[in-house]
Amino acid sequence: MTRLTIGIVDYGVGNLASVRHALRSMGYRSRSSSDREILAASDLLLLPGVGAFPAAMQALHAMKLVDFIRQQAGAGKPVLGICLGMQLLAESSTEWQSTAGIGLIPGEVLHLSHADWHIGWNTLEVTSDDPMFRVADRRAMYFNHSYAFHPPSEYRVAVARIGSRNDPFTVAVRRKNVVGLQFHPEKSQADGRILLSNVIEGLCHA
């Protein structure tokens, strides 16, 4: 059986090492690159990310990767965004300034309402019957962010809760062949890697 190859989009600001290590330990091949030909040859595009939304979008534009990612997604290529990579899938963000995103999933990225920062472990509540995500319901994942994606409800597949009011916020989204995860599955021990594998296999064999 041919192993899937994951194309990790290297736009200069993502944290790639932990993602590569996790994928390797799970039996996947991965290639970190900004070369569009190399990325196009992969089975799935993975958009990682740490840092600020405007700087990330500036880097993606400079490398001519924004339209490439849009074209690949439009052609049916599976796309997975993790942490900032999930937020970049949105239409826009208010971090620092109003900045247009890649726009693969409708919605806006806004600062967390009831916390300055969300860092550490938190439990997922899967709100969809999507089979890729059922395994993660009530499982704890590792988060590190201060902004959150606000999509239409039809694209929300999981939430978590934070603050004294225990308000839910979106932590996983899906629109057909495009998935975003706000948490770091690659840093979330066994449960995170099980979910990551489910998403990769589910998207690539849909």
Task: Provide a descriptive summary of the structure in words.
The chain contains six helices and 14 strands. The strands form three sheets. The chain has an eight-stranded mixed beta sheet, with helices on both faces. A four-stranded mixed beta sheet has the order 6-5-7-11, with helices on one face. It is of the alpha/beta class and 206 residues long. The two termini are 17 Å apart. β5 (92-93) and β6 form a beta hairpin. It is globular and about 50 Å long. Helix content is 26%, strand content 31%.
The low-pLDDT segments are none
The secondary-structure class comes to alpha/beta
Number of helices: 6
Q: Specify the helix fraction band.
A: 25-40%
Strand order of the largest sheet: 2-1-3-4-14-13-12-9
Q: In total, how many beta strands?
A: 14
- Spell out the helices and strands N to C: EHEHEHHEHEEEEEEEEEEH
**What is the alpha-carbon Rg in Å?**
15 Å
| Average pLDDT, all residues | 94
Global morphology: globular
Sheet of most strands: 8 strands, mixed
Task: Work out the strand percent.
Answer: 25-35%
**Span between termini:** 17 Å
What labels describe this entry?
206 residues, alpha/beta, 8-stranded mixed β-sheet
In short:
This protein is an alpha/beta fold and 206 residues long.
Tell me the layout of helices and strands:
Layout: E1 5-9, H1 17-25, E2 29-33, H2 36-40, E3 44-47, H3 53-62, H4 66-74, E4 79-82, H5 84-87, E5 92-93, E6 99-100, E7 108-111, E8 118-123, E9 125-126, E10 140-145, E11 147-150, E12 156-162, E13 167-175, E14 178-181, H6 189-204
Parallel strand pairs: 1-2, 1-3, 3-4, 4-14, 5-7
Antiparallel strand pairs: 5-6, 7-11, 8-10, 9-12, 12-13, 13-14
